[in-house]
Structures are given as structure tokens and as C-alpha cells.
Amino acid sequence: MSTAKSPFLIGLRAAKANLLPGLVIQAAMVSIVVAYYTVPRVHDWLCVLAEIKRNGGLPFSAVSAVVAGAIFPEVLAITIFQKGRITRKNLGNLLFNAALWGFEGVVVDLFYRTQAVIFGDHADFATVFKKVLVDQLVYTTFFATPFSVGCFEWKNQGYSTKGMSRVFTPGFYKNQSVPALIASWGVWIPLVSVIYSLPSLLQFPIFTLGLTFWVMMLTYVTSAEKKKSALPFSPPVGNAAPIQS
After folding, report:
1. What is the model's pLDDT at position 141?
2. Which of 218, 145, 172, 177 is nearest to 8 (CA)?
3. CA-to-CA distance for 112 and 132, rounded, in angstroms?
4. Distance set, CA 165 to CA 67, 118, 160, 170 (Å)
5. Average pLDDT, the chain
6. Secondary structure (DSSP) of 111-158
7. Distance (Å, rounded) from C-alpha 175 to C-alpha 133?
8. Could you give the percent of the chain with pLDDT greater than 70?
9. In this structure, how many other beta carbons lie within 10 angstroms of the beta carbon of residue 156?
């Protein structure tokens, strides 16, 4: 494999492309956490959100992930880039992304709960550090990224299962999942650090907020690139997959 086509270098280029928007998202998320601990009004509002999460349970997680990962991006694409014109492709994207994110929303919520049971519900440095390591080096590396990449591989070949066994091979993981994984780490390692700095009931709602920022930004970038818009950065690979049209 040539250096230019190295999965590692592809991932690094995508991470570089993600740098500016990623920093914006990270700054917004850090501001929310700081406000939670320092601004009483924000603290009270987020406590209300935590109660909604407590009462809503897993259905809340599924619905909020669908809104963040499927509905918002498609509405953005239709409104801004398609001038309000809805196509059959939009419906297909919406159904696929709703199913994917509804499932992943429940999985992420359960994963956060499991982390709280194993490591505790404290926001001290040691607890947050352990949760981030398990999140990014175990959960994301061996499940979240390869699962999402595999789902989009299935979608991109017309929902046919023919040849899908290749998704489970080391070569596919190296060439497809590794670039996506590297691209995501630059943005999501800081984001999950922020998320785990909050009480457990707020972790998933704040994850959903970060996801909303992320997928809407990627929708804008990928859609604008398709229209050859002169953007200062190129659309990233990997994490862009959940919102590609």
C-alpha cells in the first residue's frame, strides 16, 4: 500500500479536516459544563433536563438520538441545500439514519450506565480518565466504529447482504474502520471527557447535544462539498458516514 493510501494517513488527513469545526464544538460543550457548575440558571435548566432523562429512560435516549442523528441533518440538507425540495433519497436517508441512531442511542445510554456501575458516578479526574479510556479504546474501537462503518457499507451496496462477510475481515477493518476511528478521536476524546465530567443523568443528554452539533456540521460540510462550495476545509471521512446523502 502506498503512503498516500495508508489508512493511518487517511485518518490523519480527516482529523485535520475536522480540526476547526471540532474545536468549535468542543468549545461549546466545555462552555455548557462550565456554566452548569458556575451559572445557577444553567444548572437549574440542566437539572430539569436530567429529570426528563430519568423519567424518559431508554425511549428518551432512542428518540433524542434519532432527532440529533437523523431528523436534524436531513432537515438541514433539505432546507439549505435542496431549497425545500424533498426527494425519495431524503426519505431513505431518514429511515436508515433513524434506525441506526435509535439503536445506537440505546446502546450508548446502556454503555454510560455500565460505566457508572463499574467506575462510579464521580466526576474526579481518575474516574473520568478511566471512562474515557474504555469509551474510546474499547467501545469505540471494537464496536461503535466498525458497526457504523459496516452499516453504511450495507447501505452503500443497496442493502444487499451479498459479500458482507468482508466487513468482519482484518483487511476491511484496517482500510475502512481505522481511518474513521482516527478521524473521530480528535473530536470525540475531548467531547467524552466533557460528558463524563457531568452527573450520570446528564451524560446522555449532553452527548445528544454534542451529536447534534457534530452531525449538523458534517451535513453542512458534505452537502456543500457536493455543490463545490469553497469551504476552508474538506469533508472528513469516517464520522461523516452517518450523514452522507
Report:
1. 95
2. 177
3. 11
4. 31, 34, 11, 11
5. 83
6. HHHHHHHHH-S--SHHHHHHHHHHIIIIIIIIIIHHHHHHHHHHHHTT
7. 23
8. 84
9. 10
